[in-house]
Design a protein that fits this description.
With about 290 residues, this protein is of the alpha/beta class. It starts with 19 loop residues before the first helix and ends with a strand. The protein is built from eleven helices and seven strands. It has a seven-stranded mixed sheet with strand order 3-2-1-4-5-7-6, sandwiched between helices. The protein has a single domain, classed as Vaccinia Virus protein VP39 (Rossmann fold). Helix 6 links the parallel strand 2 and strand 3.
Length: about 290
């Protein structure tokens, strides 16, 4: 096992949080162990911390009185979450085996594993949570890919990479924990000229006027600060990231949320997502931008 793939706490470099808020977020994710994240990951060993897109395969789930219904429902939710990660990877552009990618806010590492399996490249994950980093590194070691897939405890606003070192980077539902100008300045610094940045994120719709009560509930639930669509585009433009693709995935994620609301894994936040998506106050977007 490589030194980068070590799973022990002592082997991880754990910097002191730079702000009280960062400390709060680290503690939040260190203690998080929701069945909706862990049980879905147990389906095939890909542990995600994001949501799903695509139509539900009701045939695969079967009837509600079937003894295997709940197990099949969980597998379907996981399939939709993996489809979301695959859709993000589809937009990274050409990636070579010698390239290095960055997953900023990597969670337990599911997207990193998928990226390495697809491209054969190295993937570096960043998280404020030592528990998440340990989990991701242990999983990479189990898969025999610890030399290529590595998570570390690190503030994504101060990435431990040289200027222009990274071929592509992403945030998958993790950008709402930081200031966007600071975040995109750092992605712009580490990306090579011509490198690709991709985010999938929930954002409040400026046309609604202000964040709705549902958005405020989501902020409180996850201790985050959801940004507006306008803020994303403005902060990218200010930091030499030029959007090439903007895709509204709101309608594509609604089937996932409707299915999840019927499962035993509900967390109490499902109605806020469904109501905000349906009343237009919240949007689910993919933005792919090139570093110029």
């Amino acid at each position: 096992m490589s030194s980068t793939g070590s799973t022990s706490t002592s082997a991880l470099t754990i910097p002191r949080p730079q702000t009280p808020y960062q400390g709060d977020i680290a503690r939040y994710w260190d203690s998080e162990a929701r069945p909706v994240n862990l049980r879905l990951g147990d389906v095939d060993g890909l542990y995600h911390h994001h949501y799903g897109i695509g139509d539900v395969d009701h045939t695969a789930i079967g009837d509600s009185d079937d003894a295997q219904h709940e197990e099949r429902l969980v597998a379907e939710l996981h399939r939709l979450e993996s489809a979301q990660a695959a859709f993000l990877l589809d937009h990274l552009g050409p990636i070579g085996r010698g390239d290095t990618l960055v997953d900023a806010g990597c969670g337990r590492g599911g997207s990193m594993v998928m990226a390495h399996q697809r491209f054969g490249c190295s993937v570096e994950g960043l998280t404020l949570s030592s528990k998440q980093a340990e989990f991701a590194n242990a999983r990479a070691d189990e898969l025999g890919i610890a030399d290529h897939v590595h998570a570390r405890v690190c503030n994504m606003l101060h990435m431990p990479f040289d200027t222009g070192q990274i071929a592509a980077s992403w945030n998958n539902e993790s950008s709402m924990y930081v200031d966007l100008h600071d975040l995109f300045a750092e992605h712009s610094r580490v990306l090579a000229v011509g490198g690709r940045y991709v985010t999938i994120t929930g954002c409040w719709n400026p046309r609604y006027g202000q964040p709705s009560k549902w958005v405020s509930q989501i902020n409180a639930h996850f201790e985050c600060n959801i940004h507006s669509r306008r803020e994303y585009l403005r902060a990218m433009a200010d930091n030499r990231l030029v959007p090439q693709t903007v895709i509204d995935l709101t309608s594509a994620t609604l089937p996932y949320w409707r299915l999840r609301a019927t499962s035993s894994l509900v967390t109490g936040i499902e109605d806020a997502f469904l109501n905000s998506y349906q009343d237009g106050s919240f949007q689910y977007l993919l933005i792919a931008a090139d570093r110029i």
